[in-house]
Design a protein that fits this description.
Layout: H1 13-30, E1 38-39, H2 62-79, H3 88-102, H4 107-127, E2 136-145, E3 153-159, E4 177-185, E5 194-211, E6 214-231, E7 277-281
Parallel strand pairs: 1-2, 4-6
Antiparallel strand pairs: 2-3, 2-5, 3-4, 5-6, 5-7
Helix pairs in contact: 2-3
């Protein structure tokens, strides 16, 4: 026979303690191990040396890329009987081929190599950050808010250096992380770097950024959902220096001026008022 003393009440101290232990274990299992986050430099997100290749399309201007794409599309339409070989589109194709040829662009060679370039780009993308993808990392960088009008910053692009103006190209896609943090952090000057930590994932995305003096397209190879740790200081770490702006994108690195030659575009000073504004996300 079971006596009253042998029956466990659902709210008995023993069971309540057991429930609490089980709940704590579930939380520990589900939460990322940020305490073990690895301090990561931007250099570790770059592709391996054996994947670096000469991308001929990277040397084309946005207008040249658009024209080349138009040529490829018209040729596909003609080849699939969706456009007349002697029609208006064919004439446009001939005009664009001549225009690019006059600019020193070998259309036939580029189109014949596009599949190889696509394969190399895919291989490079998969190699970027391969040692840290899907792991908890802690990385410093500069914040480019995606929604700058909000009272707290929760969604932003983390980059190793700040684009002072539209004359500077943005960092490479493997040097941009799309970050979401919770809780958010207070708005900050774009030249004040921070520490961010969370689990790094590979998920390419693209953004259109409107700066005060122009528009910039920014691609990001990675995403990270985590938390703001604190302000970055060079007195505590020099890991951010490994992701410094390449001197190759500046005409005269010694003066710190951008390609437009304006002294107000010095990368070391916030010469342009306001923050970059993301108008749309693709």
């Amino acid at each position: 026979m079971i006596t009253n003393k042998q029956i466990f009440h659902p709210f008995s101290p023993a069971l309540v303690t057991g429930y609490m232990i089980l709940f704590a274990l579930l939380i520990m299992t589900a939460a990322p191990a940020f305490g073990d986050a690895r301090i990561t430099s931007w250099k570790e997100l770059r592709p391996g040396e054996d994947i670096v290749f000469d991308d001929p399309f990277a040397r084309l201007s946005p207008d040249q890329l658009r024209d080349l794409g138009t040529i490829a599309r018209i040729r596909w339409l003609i080849a699939n009987d969706k456009s007349k070989p002697d029609g208006v589109s064919a004439g446009e194709e001939e005009r664009l081929v001549k225009q690019l040829s006059d600019q020193g662009v070998d259309v036939e060679w580029l189109l014949s190599h596009r599949e190889k370039v696509v394969d190399k780009r895919r291989e490079r993308l998969e190699s970027s950050g391969s040692s840290v993808v899907d792991t908890a990392i802690r990385i410093p960088g500069y914040v480019m808010p995606l929604f700058p009008d909000q009272p707290e910053i929760r969604d932003f692009l983390l980059v190793p250096w700040v684009t002072p103006c539209a004359h500077f190209p943005p960092p490479a896609a493997n040097q941009v992380i799309r970050v979401t943090i919770e809780p958010g952090m207070a708005p900050r000057d774009r030249f004040d770097p921070v520490w961010i930590q969370g689990t790094l994932k590979r998920k390419p995305s693209e953004y259109t950024i409107f700066l005060v003096d122009g528009v910039s397209r920014v691609e990001a190879d990675f995403t990270l959902a985590g938390q703001f740790i604190g302000n970055y200081s060079t007195t505590e770490s020099n890991v951010l220096a490994e992701g410094a702006m390449p001197a190759s994108i500046v005409n005269n690195p010694g003066t710190g001026r951008c390609k437009c030659g304006s002294p107000t575009c010095s990368p070391g000073h916030d010469s342009h008022p306001g923050s970059p504004i993301i108008r749309d996300t693709l």
